[in-house]
Design a protein that fits this description.
single chain, Ammonium/urea_transptr, transport, carbon dioxide transmembrane transporter activity, transmembrane, mainly alpha, two-stranded parallel sheet, globular, ammonium channel activity
């Protein structure tokens, strides 16, 4: 990877700098959006990054490569959306709103990253980000400018698109050797706590994500609808999680992911007049669908359809994204509304949902075929879900010593880097403490 990754990363960054030099210019409008930008930016780098740290030996990649994808993608997203939406005199206006949209485009690649987490290398992720943001920008332009559909929180254009793009990629990159669960494809107590940090950041700032680029007259409505959809979704997720367990216990996987589904599902119609009770209904349904998807659908996708979805993005982003699209169709059919002088209709919303899923699957399949080329290299099945394949990882044993006592030997094996033992746990597991 030493030369492949470095050369590709440096070359693409030089190209970005040249393109920014030729086409980008300052635009001081929308400075009032900066608080929303900070919230969205935090979600991209901390929320998404820590959400994927649940794998016990893959925390470096989850947070580190997440940062790489985001930093790389926001530059390309700025350029692609600027080229498609146009600017003054062929220039791309760079302002707070364009920075928010750049983060939005990056979110699609981060969602897809969750589907292939642990099975790709950094070179492949750079290429996936570059290709996916290109396709995303085209689809987003189609939905907003051609179909003139509403999707203020991007249930369709970001969440459903990113999920099905990633599922198509992981289908093409299917690994028969991982059919039986890999020993590293599991969490530890501490890795799950770190992942829960990502969940909390995403959950708290999701109202900003959905309302960041909404019209000033609709921001309050969008924030309120998202707020209550998330709250209802969280309660329902806890309830269904306990109900599905024979002992009535909660599943951390479900709490980390399904509690966020309400924010995804309400996104399309968050700025419409649906009232808080309807937003809560959407959030509740999203929580149920997400939990059931994790519990029943994910194993079927892996065993029958050869879709190895590491993070379960289908259940957090895919299914709730479709639900959001359907909610938009229903709301516009029942209560026609006008946005920016455009009449919203159920037909436009349906066309936007269908095209998004179709383009995502096609684009993901083509991207997967490109990433599968031998030239990019592949991590072996044995080294999947292990940071040491691409990171310098220092394994520091907390204790490794043998001692003779009472004519017997006590052997203490090296403790893996993901395990943390306190003095109390040593006393519990090792009655004889060794200095």
């Amino acid at each position: 990877m030493r030369f492949k990754f470095s050369i590709i990363a440096l070359l693409l960054e030089v190209v970005f700098i040249i393109l920014f030099g030729l086409f980008a210019e300052y635009d001081d409008e929308n400075i009032t959006l900066y608080p929303f930008f900070k919230d969205v930016h935090l979600m991209i780098f901390i929320g998404f990054g820590f959400l994927m740290t649940f794998l016990k030996k893959y925390g470096f990649t989850s947070v580190g490569v997440n940062m790489l994808i985001a930093a790389f993608g926001l530059q390309w997203g700025t350029l692609m959306q600027g080229f498609l939406h146009g600017g003054r005199g062929g220039k791309i206006p760079v302002n707070i709103k364009s920075m928010i949209n750049a983060d939005f485009s990056t979110a699609t690649a981060l969602i897809s990253f969750g589907a292939v987490l642990g099975k790709t290398n950094p070179v492949q992720m750079l290429l996936l980000t570059f290709l996916e943001i290109t396709v995303f920008a085209v689809n987003e332009h189609l939905v907003t400018e051609i179909f003139q559909a509403t999707d203020i929180g991007a249930s369709m254009t970001i969440h459903a698109f990113g999920a099905y793009f990633g599922l198509a990629v992981t289908l093409i990159l299917y690994r028969p050797g991982l059919k039986n669960k890999h020993e590293n494809e599991e969490s530890s107590y501490h890795s799950d706590i770190f992942a829960m940090i990502g969940t909390l950041f995403l959950w708290l700032f999701w109202p900003s994500f959905n309302s960041a680029i909404a019209d000033e007259n609709d921001k309050n409505k969008t924030i309120i609808n998202t707020y209550y959809a998330l709250a209802a979704c969280a309660v329902i997720t806890f309830a269904i999680s306990s109900l599905l367990d024979q002992r009535g216990k909660f599943s951390m996987v479900l709490i980390q992911n399904a509690t966020l589904a309400g924010g995804v599902a309400v996104g399309t119609c968050a700025d419409l007049t649906i009232y808080p009770f309807a937003a809560m209904c959407i959030g509740s349904i999203a929580g149920i669908i997400s939990v059931l998807g994790f519990h029943f659908l994910t194993p079927v996708l892996a065993s029958k359809l050869r879709i190895q979805d590491t993070c379960g993005v289908h259940n957090l982003h895919g299914l709730p994204g479709i639900l959001g699209g359907i909610a938009g169709i229903i709301v516009t059919a029942i209560q026609p509304q006008t946005k920016k002088g455009v009449q919203l209709t159920a037909g436009k919303q349906a066309a936007a949902l269908g095209s998004t899923i179709g383009i995502a699957l096609l684009g993901g399949a083509l991207t997967g075929a490109i990433l599968k080329l031998p030239i990019w290299g592949q991590v072996s099945d044995q080294n999947c879900f292990d940071d040491s394949a691409y990171w310098e990882v220092r394994y520091k044993p907390l204790l490794r010593q043998s001692q003779q006592r009472n004519n017997s030997f006590i052997m203490l094996e090296e403790i893996q880097h993901t395990e943390v033992f306190t003095s109390v746990s040593f006393q519990t597991h090792c009655p004889v403490l060794v200095n």
